[in-house]
Amino acid sequence: MKLKLNKAIVFFDLEATGLDVVNDRIVEISLVKIDVSGDRKSFTSRINPKIPIPPESTAIHGIKDEDVVSAPTFELIGKDVKVFIGNADLAGFNSNRYDIPLLVEEFGRNNIEFDLSKRRFVDVQNIFHKMERRNLETAYRYYCGKELKNAHSAEADVLATIEVLEAQLDTYKELEPTTEFLHVFASFNRNVDLAGRIILNDKDIEVFNFGKYKGQGVLDVFKKDPGYYSWILNADFPRETKSKFTELKLRELNTSE
After folding, report:
1. What is the distance between the alpha carbons of residues 76 and 85, in angstroms, rounded to a whole number?
2. Nearest CA among 230, 158, 244, 233 for reference residue 194
3. Which residues 6+ apart lie within 8 Å of 79 measured at CB?
4. Fewer CB within a 10 Å sphere, N or C end of the chain?
5. In three state form, how does the secondary structure of 105-138 look?
6. What are 188-199's pLDDT values in tens digits?
7. Is 95 helix (H, G, I), strand (E, B) or coil?
8. Is the overall model pTM greater than 0.70, yes or no?
9. What's the pLDDT band for 256 if we cut at 50, 70, 90?
10. pLDDT tens per residue across span 122-133
11. At CA 32, angle to CA 191 and CA 70, rounded to 5?
12. Phi first, then psi: what are they for 46, rounded to 5°?
């Protein structure tokens, strides 16, 4: 079953120097944009991360330092990536927890504004885990009946992700083929930020999802422990997470006036 779109969606996959969305860097990006008519266009590029690629990361995606030495930096292609995405929704495999935060971090590091507020996110891995409870190769074999060749190359992974989602839509009749439905279904928590450091509780109040104040309201904590906000800004959190905390801090200041 094909997706029914009222807005373009971009499936994408990133290969990187590691799994730390704050400190690691992208070494390859592949994007496939599907418009409302079903037409597709793609963009794939190696990226010079300007830091060494650890051997353990090369062992996964096969990209070495010498493979990207002449590749463009994200600073050079970031604006092209932003233009390619446009106002489209975003999708991927483990994209909510990894690819989207990492991409947003790279945009922010290079002073490229990228608004997430009006986008929907479809994480195909979350649908897989909710329906069958495992990695992309397994999902591809299970849903598509094929072996994934060139796994952990960004282009092979992003194309496989699209096939997996289409097969999921054929397999589970309760799934609706719209990004509106899949955006909600593919979310495990009611995240306020992409990393899930802030979530909404059952009363729609923003609460901490980590640390000593886990489960407590963010605004309540900021009132009783004003220094905690400063600690967050200086800690190793993604830029987008810090931005959400700042929005809440400004709300706390406005309501206290």
Report:
1. 16
2. 244
3. 112
4. C
5. HHHHHCCCCCCCCCCCEEEHHHHHHHHCCCCHHH
6. 778 899 888 999
7. helix
8. yes
9. low
10. 999 999 988 876
11. 100
12. -75, 155
Specify whether the CB–CB gap between 86 and 65 falls below 8 A.
no
Sign of the four-CA dihedral 192, 239, 87, 251 = positive
- Give burial (CB, 10 Å; 0-12/13-18/19+) of 122: buried
115 φ, ψ (degrees, to nearest 5): -85, 125
Quick check: 226 and 249 in contact, CB under 8 A?
A: no
Distance between CA atoms of 225 and 221, rounded to whole angstroms? 6
Length of the chain counted residue by residue: 257
Q: How far is CA 177 from CA 5, 49, 99, 207, 220, in A?
A: 8, 36, 22, 31, 40
In whole angstroms, give the CA distance from residue 9 to residue 39.
11
